[in-house]
Amino acid sequence: MNVTLITGASDGIGKAIAHRFALLKHNLVLVARNEQKLAAICNELTSNYKIEARYIIADLCKAEAPQAVYDECEKRHLEVDVLINNAGKGSSGEFCQNDLAAELEIIQLNDVSLVALTHLFLQNMRRNKKGFIINVASMIAFIPSPYMAVYAGSKHFVKAFTYSIAEECKPYGVKVMLFSPGLTSSNFMNTKENNNNWGKALTSGVNTQTPEQVAEELMLAFSKNKSRHVSGSKNRIFAKLASFLPPSFIASTFAKQKRKQVGIKEA
Ligand SMILES: NC(=O)c1ccc[n+]([C@@H]2O[C@H](COP(=O)([O-])OP(=O)(O)OC[C@H]3O[C@@H](n4cnc5c(N)ncnc54)[C@H](OP(=O)(O)O)[C@@H]3O)[C@@H](O)[C@H]2O)c1
């Protein structure tokens, strides 16, 4: 059975994407850690949209998890023809003060697992000359972001990796899209790593989209076979403007603004 696999589908943007794909009658495999949430979403999707929705519990911060997810799909004879690498996490604060293990987990989840899942599922797509991979980055992939340094670096990686493999995949009929949301009203900023003064400085006064709005834009971009899309019209303008400015200027402006919001005086 052909399926769309979505990581980080138990909440936020991933959950909203799952609803959208179910509406399009895609059979789904949802991946995350929280079994209770995954089971409830699968039940809802199955009964509302008359599709097959299954889940795989996986902690994608663990190095062995992507292979285990792939093996489970093989065991259940599920052919992943759309892969959406959406699971992600971040942190706010001074890099040198943040917990190192938590910072490295960001790279493991946002980059290492994304690369491993892409590598694993791409093999069949390439053989079948058909498939679609969507990697969820962030607006932050277009700008340096002091006080969110590792998260910013992880999403810059996703951008460069995705643009590069998109070209490599063209001869095989596999499409690859970089999808970049801006600030979205999910639980993302409520985690213990983000819920602090630095995180609040990032979010204060900034427009947010709902996960449903973000998912709607992703769906539209998918239906148009786009290779890149920034969610939200203001975010698109900002990403365009940022491409004309020196990264050092953006970094220094943001850093000063955040220090002011947090109440740190300039030396
Ligand atoms: N929210 C924003 O402002 C924003 C802005 C730009 C980009 N993004 C990106 O959008 C994507 C989705 O974010 P969101 O806002 O929907 O965040 P969210 O509401 O916090 O949801 C994150 C999802 O990822 C899953 N997840 C977290 N850690 C995991 C792990 N170790 N293994 C497997 N799954 C894990 C969570 O499920 P479990 O807890 O059940 O594992 C949840 O389903 C991320 O890549 C994020 O970087 C978000």
Care to describe what's here?
By secondary structure, this protein is an alpha/beta fold. It has a single domain, classed as 3-Layer(aba) Sandwich (Rossmann fold), CATH 3.40.50. It is 51% helix and 15% strand. It has nine helices and seven strands, in the order E-H-E-H-E-H-E-H-E-H-E-H-H-E-H-H. It has a seven-stranded parallel beta sheet, sandwiched between helices. Helix 5 links the parallel strand 5 and strand 6. The radius of gyration is 18 Å and the shape is globular. The mean pLDDT is 96. The structure holds NADP nicotinamide-adenine-dinucleotide phosphate (NAP). The site of NADP nicotinamide-adenine-dinucleotide phosphate (NAP) has 30 residues, from helix 1.
Short overview:
The protein is an alpha/beta fold and 267 residues long.
The largest sheet is: 7 strands, parallel
How many beta-strand segments?
7
Class computed from helices, strands and strand pairing: alpha/beta
Strand fraction equals 5-15%
The number of helical elements comes to 9
What does the overall shape look like?
Answer: globular
Instruction: Return the CATH class.
Output: Alpha Beta
CATH superfamily: NAD(P)-binding Rossmann-like Domain
**Bound ions, cofactors and other small molecules, one mention each:** NADP nicotinamide-adenine-dinucleotide phosphate
User: What are the low-pLDDT stretches, counting only 5+ consecutive residues below 50?
Assistant: none
For the terminal residues, how far apart are their CA atoms? 61 Å
Q: Which CATH architecture?
A: 3-Layer(aba) Sandwich
List the helices and strands in order: EHEHEHEHEHEHHEHH
As for the number of domains, it is 1
The largest sheet has its strands arranged as 3-2-1-4-5-6-7
User: Helicity, in percent?
Assistant: 40-55%
CATH fold label: Rossmann fold
What does the radius of gyration come to?
Answer: 18 Å
Mean pLDDT: 96
